Amino acid sequence: MVSLLLVAGVAVAAFVGFNIGGSSTGVAFGPAVGSDTVSKVTAAALMTGFALLGGWTVGREVIDTLGSDIVTTAFTLEISIGVLFFVGLALFLSNVAGVPASTSMTAVGAMAGLGLARGTLNWGEMGRIVSWWLVSPVIAFWVSAVVGRYHYPRLVEWFAVTQTEGSLVVLDRSGALPRPELGPNTTTRELVGTLLVIAIGCYMAFSAGASNVANAVAPLYGSGDLEMSQAILLGGGAIGLGAFTIARRTMDTVGNDLTDLPLLAALVVATVSSTIVTGLSALGIPASFVIIATMSIVGLGWGRATRTVTIADARGGDPPAVSVGALAAEADEAPTVGGDGGEGGASDPPDAPPIGSEDRESIPDAEDLFEPATTARVIFLQNVVPGIATVASFLLFRFVPL
């Protein structure tokens, strides 16, 4: 009987990891896939490898937190299966809708439902986690705002790249051993820019693994039925399965439907968000990458918009015309990877105007950046999915004797 329960527990954990892979892969590689930098198959392979690496290294701390610190209830196989079932069900609903949800908030919500139902919730640990959930988006906002106000125009000049026709790299077979060289139309700048896009996607996959592998396997580790290494391999493998299958829809949503965010802005958001999530994972905090990334986008747009006025002007009562659409303000002058620019990218971009001299009319409306209907659907599900897991878990453990 115990062995059958263990098989059921492993199956449910794999189901959760499968849905995590479907959600997280879209967030990590959606921009790269949307710009045709990598294929969906390549994105899935990279997601699998780097998510497993993140779980194997930094993710151990998060597994400890979720497996033993949030609730004082001793995890049994029955309880573990119940918690994981509702995490997987809630994430599955979001993936069917093609929208990436916060896997960490969903997992913590399911465990909080267990703790509330049994009166065993560790309020101190929950307070620490929720405090970081409140602080980390603020950090993401202000870091991105500083980048947008003071550094974004210069980054546009540095990383302006245009994709050319043909293969990025080809093999020269004229010698004894084949050696790679640039494609017939490829510039060094294009190669470096493309590698940067891929590298940041891999960094996001690493941070997703560090934070999210625990969401799939922590209850089974907490019950003592899986060792740490076994749990990580199970979670990482299940995430890879989701990346190769159900993630195709979320990659389309993030890469094509949700936003016209310039690729450079997406890279800034990815770097800021992944760094914060990785840092929190090292502290044992299950972080919400989706919410952190959203606030990073808003902060970057706000920082770009405030370049129209100086601090002295703002103190004098001349508020800036704030619009998240400001992220696209430089797009015509210096396209990023996948943009429409001159041969090899903008090699001699114009100098960025000083703060306070930019014309407010040059800042696009927010509608030029976001698809309103898709954005509303994403925001709605990001809030509903963790709530579904929490309420369902509470009802199960409150009224069913497990």
TrEMBL record:
Keyword annotations from UniProtKB, A to Z: Membrane, Phosphate transport, Transmembrane, Transmembrane helix, Transport
PANTHER family associated with the record: PHOSPHATE TRANSPORTER (PTHR11101)
A GO biological process held by the record: phosphate ion transmembrane transport
Segments of this protein annotated with the region Disordered: 333-362
Protein known as: Phosphate transporter
Keyword Membrane: yes
Location within or outside the cell: Membrane
Role description: Potential transporter for phosphate.
A single GO cellular-component term on record: membrane
Keyword Transport: yes
Membrane topology: Multi-pass membrane protein
Family in the record: Belongs to the inorganic phosphate transporter (PiT) (TC 2.A.20) family.
Major subcellular location class: membrane
GO molecular function terms listed in the Swiss-Prot or TrEMBL record: phosphate transmembrane transporter activity
Segments traversing the membrane: 38-58, 70-93, 129-149, 191-208, 228-246, 258-277, 283-302, 378-400
Organism: Halosimplex rubrum
Pfam families with a match to the protein in the record: PHO4
